[in-house]
Design a protein that fits this description.
Oligomer: single chain
Distance between the termini: 42 Å
Radius of gyration: 20 Å
Number of helices: 12
Helix content: 25-40%
Strand order of the largest sheet: 5-4-6-7-1-8-13-12-11
Strand content: 15-25%
Structural class: alpha+beta
């Protein structure tokens, strides 16, 4: 196990910690919609199937079974029927399957979010599209714009490489854009088909953890600038955002990309880094807005896994129930990488909507190693 020592306690820039908060330029979250593949499986149904894919015939499956039982995941959705994965063969076939499924799920997610927001595809001025589980040129956003009926002059931004942090980082970048374009409407689409990256005949612990934890899905978020936002729905307002990179931690998470596609990198030292170094930059971010962790009533956290969630709870001194919504999402659909934090945010709507006027904090962590914070108010 490799764990880097961060000697400057996450190297929080002095300028960032002393910079006064700018006047509020808010962004309204008008809608969030999740789209899941139709192939749904209970966790215990998948264990032996994934063993067949990842382990040699006759190999001991005790570690695999312990991992599947310990993730907190009860069910997951897969892009394909589980029986089809053994026949995918090479990266090209897996990526072709990703393009087909990603387009279908992406269309469902964006159309559902726009419908929920009471908007038409032609109302969209910016479409940000993220995925880290497949590749396409033309990108998904270019292929989807016409299928959805968006204007030919819609601005597009395809994003690759952010991984699990991209749901939070994508919302933050939408906010940056809308602060400068207050009359516009922007959409964030995240599509992650993690099952299509599973490496066959790879019994490494990282591959087995991925096979036990990750699920497939897409989520879309509609955001509107302050000049056109109508507070008809029950979504929050984005007040501010903050990004943070942790020095000398690039090796903790990501892909090793080769002939067989994306081989996952998940270092066992991630929970320790989160426990030791998440708290300071987050508390500094809140302090710039006159807040502390005690002022945050709603925590919208990416479900990295049980050990990461325990580390977040410890680092911030949160009560155990603070991350209940995240744990519910993890149990219901697994970790869907960048789409998961939006699935958690969607869970804070309807009867679970926080009280008006209360504060929320949306956050995720991902390759870099990095974190992204988004300050919300309902």
């Amino acid at each position: 196990m490799r764990v880097s020592v961060i000697t400057d306690d996450a190297a929080l820039p002095a300028a960032a910690s002393r910079r006064p908060a700018a006047p509020a330029a808010t962004t309204t979250v008008a809608a969030v919609h999740t789209a899941l593949p139709s192939h749904s499986y209970a966790q215990d149904e998948l264990t032996e199937h994934i063993g067949d894919l990842c382990l040699a015939p006759g190999a001991d499956r005790s570690l695999l079974r312990r991992l599947h039982a310990s993730t907190g995941v009860r069910a997951r959705h897969l892009a394909l029927p589980i029986e089809r994965y053994a026949g995918l063969g090479d990266f090209g076939r897996s990526n072709d399957a990703w393009i087909t499924a990603a387009l279908d799920l992406g269309e469902q997610a964006v159309a559902g979010a726009l419908r929920q927001a009471g908007l038409e595809p032609s109302d969209v001025d910016l479409l940000v599209c993220n995925s880290v589980t497949g590749l396409a040129t033309p990108s998904l956003d270019a292929r989807l714009a016409g299928r959805l009926g968006m204007r030919p002059d819609v601005r597009r931004l395809p994003v690759f490489g952010l991984g699990c942090v991209a749901g939070a980082a994508g919302l933050a970048r939408l906010h940056d854009y809308l602060c400068g374009h207050p009359y516009d409407t922007a959409v964030l689409l995240t599509v992650e088909l993690c099952s299509l990256t599973l490496q066959r005949r790879d019994d490494s612990r990282a591959n087995l953890v991925a096979g036990a934890l990750f699920g497939d899905g897409a989520a879309a978020l509609v955001a509107r600038g302050r000049a056109v936002a109508e507070r008809r729905g029950d979504g929050p307002v984005v007040i501010a955002t903050r990004s943070h990179l942790y020095p000398a931690t690039e090796h903790l998470m990501g892909w090793d990309i080769g002939a067989d596609g994306f081989r996952v990198v998940i270092d066992a030292g991630i929970p320790r880094v989160v426990r030791d170094h998440l708290g300071r930059p987050l508390r500094a971010f809140l302090a710039d807005h006159g807040l502390t962790t005690d002022d945050i009533r709603t925590w919208v956290c990416h479900p990295g896994g049980p050990k990461v969630l325990s580390a977040v709870t410890e680092a911030l001194g949160l009560p155990e129930e603070a991350l209940d919504a995240t744990r519910r999402s993890l149990a219901a659909v697994g970790n869907m990488s960048s789409a998961s934090v939006l699935h958690v945010l969607q869970g804070h709507s309807g009867p679970r909507r926080p009280e008006p006027g209360t504060w929320g904090l949306l956050m995720a962590m991902g390759p870099g190693f990095c974190s992204e914070f988004v300050l919300l108010r309902w």
